[in-house]
Inverse folding.
């Protein structure tokens, strides 16, 4: 089957139908022909991979009726109308009702091929977005929390569910932004402690002189400004799960106290000699292997690392990126009362060609910005983060041609706008672009004329 796209061709005139089909097939399209509209309608559903090319004037159900019924079954289906010269006004009105395009008979074959190519590309992107949305909506349980289809994320979900039942201490390893706290939350929720407290604490974010009080609590008067008793995180988490993020930054003297608490299952508040029993699971997270950290106690490591989970960086599960991006962009659109945007071919290329040094956290931020700024393309947003060329994916020699062309094109238009201080006519003349084409490209790359006009 051709990879140019699929076409459902409807025309009651056999000679026109056969000639059109032959030309399209020679141009690389897969064509399915029908003499009656009702026959074609049976092939149309929301996931129909083809576009609809139909004559308007036919006996029985005509082309306009076919378009109306087809769009009820597949609202995003591109429909191209073949019209006689006298039907132009009618076809123009039909475009307001949802037709993708129309072309007059007799038509220039090359022009028809060009318009069908654009329609097929639009259909492919619509179906890709529809599949992403359906995949997200069909997910439940852990699949809805740890999103992805890659072997790496599937393995992580299996390991997590297995460890959740064991109630052992766990170390989670992962780069910054991979979602270590989310994994810890899921580990807690799927354990028999899931109805109790999940208490997170970032060991690297609390000043060293306060972290002991945060973990173990203190009595009133235990130190300056300790006006009243404070319950620490250990005591608060008793019965549930305590999550110690960035545990590699914990001071050595506190590692000793943490080891005793894990061994004896008791703690002492600062300023108290009373032993308080605690019953909890400790989940720790680190960016580096604690075995190789000379500042981390070996005996504490073995107490914590009864089990381990390793979260893969986003660059190692690049097939999950479109799904994750659609999820966070959809959430961003809902939260900011914006209409959900469809990812273009350039967007998908850019998403899967970027290195994602900030992992899922970076992706989430980009997705939200994409959702709230209808003018911005993914490539434009990523170029503001880190130059794409400077961060190729491990194991991939270069960025895709489409992304590099888009970057270069965006740069040329931006430079022309700067030179001419936003004068669109001058930019059109320099780049030899029609007004409509320039407007489309500026919108794609998030370029706004007002940003370049002289103040």
């Amino acid at each position: 089957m051709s990879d140019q796209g699929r076409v459902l061709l409807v025309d009651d005139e056999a000679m026109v139908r056969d000639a059109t089909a032959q030309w399209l097939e020679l141009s690389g399209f897969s064509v399915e022909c029908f003499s009656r509209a009702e026959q074609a309608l049976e092939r149309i559903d929301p996931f129909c991979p083809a576009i609809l090319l139909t004559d308007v004037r036919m006996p029985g159900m005509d082309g306009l009726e076919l378009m109306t019924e087809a769009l009820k079954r597949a609202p995003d289906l591109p429909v191209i109308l073949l019209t006689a010269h006298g039907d132009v006004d009618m076809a123009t009105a039909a475009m307001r009702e949802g037709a993708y395009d129309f072309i007059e008979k007799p038509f220039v074959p090359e022009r028809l091929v060009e318009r069908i190519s654009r329609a097929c590309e639009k259909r492919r992107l619509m179906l890709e977005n529809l599949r992403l949305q359906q995949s997200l909506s069909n997910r439940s349980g852990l699949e809805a929390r740890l999103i992805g289809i890659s072997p790496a994320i599937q393995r992580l979900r299996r390991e997590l569910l297995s460890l959740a039942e064991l109630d052992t201490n766990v170390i989670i390893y992962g780069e910054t932004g991979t979602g270590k706290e989310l994994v810890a939350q899921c580990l807690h929720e799927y354990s028999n402690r899931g109805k109790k407290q999940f208490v997170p604490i970032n060991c690297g974010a609390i000043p060293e002189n306060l972290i002991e009080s945060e973990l173990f609590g203190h009595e009133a008067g235990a130190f300056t400004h300790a006006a009243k008793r404070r319950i620490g995180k250990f005591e608060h988490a008793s019965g549930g799960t305590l999550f110690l993020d960035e545990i590699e930054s914990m001071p050595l003297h506190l590692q000793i106290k943490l080891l005793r608490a894990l061994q004896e299952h008791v703690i002492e508040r600062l300023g108290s000699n009373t032993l308080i029993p605690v019953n909890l699971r400790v989940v720790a997270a680190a960016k580096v292997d604690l075995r190789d950290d000379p500042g981390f106690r070996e005996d504490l490591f073995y107490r914590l690392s009864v089990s381990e989970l390793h979260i893969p960086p986003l660059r190692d599960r690049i097939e999950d990126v479109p799904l994750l991006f659609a999820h966070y962009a959809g959430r961003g659109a809902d939260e900011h009362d914006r209409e959900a945007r469809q990812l273009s071919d350039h967007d998908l290329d850019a998403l899967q060609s970027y290195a994602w040094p900030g992992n899922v956290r970076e992706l989430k931020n980009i997705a939200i910005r994409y959702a709230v700024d209808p003018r911005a393309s993914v490539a434009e947003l990523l170029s503001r983060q880190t130059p794409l060329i400077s961060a190729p994916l491990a194991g991939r020699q270069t960025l895709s041609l489409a992304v590099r062309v888009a970057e270069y094109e965006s740069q040329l238009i931006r430079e022309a706008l700067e030179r001419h201080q936003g004068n669109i006519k001058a930019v059109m003349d320099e780049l030899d672009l029609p007004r409509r084409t320039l407007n489309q490209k500026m919108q794609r790359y998030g370029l706004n004329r007002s940003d370049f006009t002289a103040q």
